Amino acid sequence: MKSLHFLLVLFIVLGTSAAAQMQAQERLPYTTIHDPQFIPASSATFLHDPDRVIGVVIGKVAKAYPAAILSQHGLVEDQSPSGPIAITW
Question: pTM, whole model, 2 decimals?
Answer without folding.
Answer: 0.64
